[in-house]
Please model this.
Amino acid sequence: MYRFLSRTVCAARSSSVIVYESCALPTKCEKAMANQTEKPVVLMAEDGSTTQQQTDVKTEQVVAKQTQVNTDVPKSGKESLLDLLGAMKVEVTNKRRLKNLKVKQNFESPPEYKSKPAAMESTISMFQKATEEASESLDPTLVAAASAAAATLPNSNQAESELLRQLRQRKAITEAQKKGDISNLGEIIAEMKVGKKQTRQNAWAANQIRFDDDGRGYTHDRGITAELVGVRERRSFLLGKRLNIFSPSTEEDAVESTPTLWDVEFANNLSQVTDQIPRNGLEEMIQWTKEGKMWQYPVDNEAGLEEEASVPFHEHVFLEKHLEEGFPRQGPVRHFMELVVVGLSKNPYLTVQQKKEHISWFRDYFHQNEEILKNDDAYLS
Amino acid sequence: MVSPTQKPSVCTNMAAPGRHVGHYMKRNGRFLLCNIEQVLGHRSFGCTTAVRQVAEANKESAESIVIPRKKTWSKEAVLEALASTVGRDPTAYSYQFQDDPYLSPRSAVEFKLYSLSQESGRSAAKYFINSNPKFFTKDFAEPHIPCLMPETVSPCLEEVSEEALKERINLRKVTAAVDMYDQLVQAGTAVSMETTHSLLDVISFYCDRDPAEEEGPQTEDTESKDQKKRKGNFRRASDFLKFSWKENNNAERIFNLLPERDTRCYSALIRGMVKHEAYAKAFNMYTDMLNNRLTADVHIFNALISAAPEVRDKYHEKWDLITELLKQMNEQKIRPNLLTFNSVLKALRRCGFLAKTQALHTLSEMKALGIAPSLASYEHMLAIFHRSGSSGPNGTDLLQEVVAELAETNFTCQDPHDVMFFSCAIRVCLDNKDLELGYKVHSLVEFGENYRLLGDPFNQSVYYGRFFNLLCMMEHIDEVLKWYKRLIPSLYYPNPQGMKDLLQALDTDSRLDLLPSIWKDIKSLGLTNRPDMAEELLSLMTRDNHSPEIQESFAACALDIKSVFDLKFSLEWTNSSLSHVTMLLLRANKTEKAWEMLHLFKSNNRVPSDDLLNSFLSVCRTDDAPQKAVELVQMSAAFCLPTTPQLAKRTLTDFNLTEEQRAILSELEAAGGEPSD
Model:
């Protein structure tokens, strides 16, 4: 039981680094916690009160360890992200090996563990797994413990080496069994699946093709090597050596003279090559607009001002200045003419020239009838 | 913006304070105009006060206000915006044919015929108008539309002067211009250098002959010729018709008579010589120019580089010449342009083993000089790398690079050769069976206005043909059919090979039930005059047994094929196609029709197979038609088939026969039993 506890604690230390430090897997954390708090109940149902106390202690220890690890190693955001990534990776491999670890544990642990509920067993095995991974070679603490134990015995050197040999042997057996487990069929299939997923894209394009027999060449094998070639090629393609004939200078070309026949023909050629048949009515209208066959769509409020384009708006609106000459300063005629001018200023359909002509017609008219108007006192100058 | 109710008040307001702000107006009209426009934008404030405020503000901070620059829109802006909202309808024929549904082209041949006739109609009208301007004097358009009026195609100035010479040059009347020049020189009049340059340009460009006008009524001047090419977009024989540069032609003669020659003169001649394939002469001319201590221009170098592979035989000699030219270019302080490097790359295509490394170097040089490669550069690169053997990077790698670099770019055409890129790129994908890359290339085509760079209809059909071929080969049939609906016939008229690819794809994914609908498309695409097409389809339909409904549709399709065979005399029944049709009819229990088919064997001098007769007999058995069975055996005997006795025997045992029939059959059985004949 002690072995179990120590192992769990040890496992908790390393696994908490993996899972909890990242702090980005709260659900996972909760799940693990839930597992542990659930355990006593389950155990009580199964084994009775003797084990309950032990597990309680263990849970407390584990939690304590976790919080400790959580708090005492502050990490930057980037590091924790890296950890997260690492943790995910480890977990994938863990899952895969979980099964055989369980088997292994069943093999080497005393029969009492067999009665453990499945949930707990898997947790334990995960922890164990982590322990295994942590001590690929013999754990230095283990070595230290062995030497300490050996020190209590007479002939300590021999005892220590014997102890260590024993430990190594056990480890070797474990490794061998692990390997043996890997070779079982389920494992092989799982491995194959993973492999296929990674290479499917390439396999589909190249491998399938290789068996076609229509005579088209397949000089190109897109495997890892081809990718490497691609990388190399990318480098040479983008920043390869150059001819080293010209020097990149910033000076501009001399001013270009008028386009020659060659330039015109070249431009014609380009436009011919890219001009496609219009795909819809609007594109056809664009083409007509370019050819000058169609009235332009108004892009501003000056569209259609061919002859008036150069005339500013105030020429249209402020026409009083044309009344300065040839009209009386006041009186009915002046009043009438002011109304005419207001009317003209609101008329968008006449050109300025027409407006002027209109006014001068009145000028002539009133001039011709000056006598009559004067007689009626209507013409005041 | 301006609602009718608001308009009058605005106008009065504008007029009324006119006296008041009048003097600002005169002094600063444009400025006030801006402000008033601004005010009119927020008309709800009340115009009079606003104008007054503006007038006051005007006094205070006249300097601080920055007048926004006038925004200029192209005259097509509205239409372009509208056109961008119109998607492509994959079920419709090309827009140019929508005027007349009767003339909707259903096959590539019809497409070509109709678009060319449309174009030639336009050109004929144009020719008539231009050659008979006296009938087209009335100007209906208000305002005047110049392009609808007849153009002047013949020179107006008759006297001998430089003006007349210029006119002839502008009208590109080469012989007339040369005559005019000679007259001028004989009269002792000096012709300005500028006019001489353009004269030499015209002569060199058209290789001392009038540009194709005199040949027929189709083309009268380059303007209309260009239009025709632009719209018809078909390759014409005259485009390929090359005139060779003649020794001592008018260009050379005038050139030699010139008192002094500058770079422009040399440039015109060298470019003309290269254009008209007098490559060695061009290089001689260049040496001559150097001896006269003139520096070349970029056009001369571009022309010479493209001519370089023609004047040398060995690969490394060609490349040495090109590098030599580039070095001279650098010495003469001439900046290369895109076309220079494109000519280098094009020349490298003919430099064999040197091409790959040097092409990469050239591309790096371009980038170092800040010249962005155009599609043509990449096309040359692809051609160089695609051809080359297995070692090192090949076309696919390069194309992947290029596609990654070009993704989401709007291309503009910078080199006439640019339009070759897409068909070349898709060829690389097809040859390497790289569907993914093919999709990438196609997404490049579909991006923005890039489809314009697909080139003329011929190029387009090549591109789509390859793309479709790739799809048929690599893609799942559902996807293939999706593309089929999208591309055909609105963008692409498949050729027989394309249709066969599709049939194969259907076969591979066992969707043979779609064959009848494909046959309808084949018929509408005008591919029925190919006997192998129908044969392939029939053999696919006959190969396996299907469910009764499918067999029913197959039989209908087979009858349809038969009717096509009946109509077209160019199609000849082969043994297999006859038996396939008969078999299909039998499977759908159309015994009568199948019986008619059997008679066709006789009339076409074909012999039915044993299998066919046996299955026919089985059908007779299920129909319980002893008379027909007897006739079948008789027919078999008439064909002198070795299987006749067996058939007779089967008939004797399987059917309820009358005495007469028995007698006939026994005789046949006995006759067949003696294989001595």
About this structure: Chain B touches chain A through 92 residues (CB under 8 Å). The mean pLDDT of chain B is 81.
